[in-house]
Amino acid sequence: MNSERPESNPLPDVASHPEVKVFRRRLDPHARLPEHTHKGREVVVTVVSGDLTLTLGAQARFLTENDVATFGGDVVTSLRAGERGAEFTVTLVPVTAVPRR
């Protein structure tokens, strides 16, 4: 019998904040999420597979597998999957939970 126990909280302290939300999404090829915001949040998008274009205001960024983008949730955002579609996570962190340096 294996007596090893997983860590009770392997993520940074901010992940234990009750208002942190993590979503796993999948977009079919060329599908898109329309413009939206996440006011009062910091946003982390991590591409698990495929590729997508992340538009933040007037700037577009091409992201592929294992790429990570972070940005303030007050920026108007849209996502469009590439030819292979995309699977990705979105983590929303309340601004109040983000440690300030």
UniProtKB/TrEMBL annotation:
It comes from the Bacteria. SUPFAM superfamilies: RmlC-like cupins. Gene3D superfamilies: Jelly Rolls. Residues 1-20 are annotated as: Disordered. This is Quercetin dioxygenase-like cupin family protein.
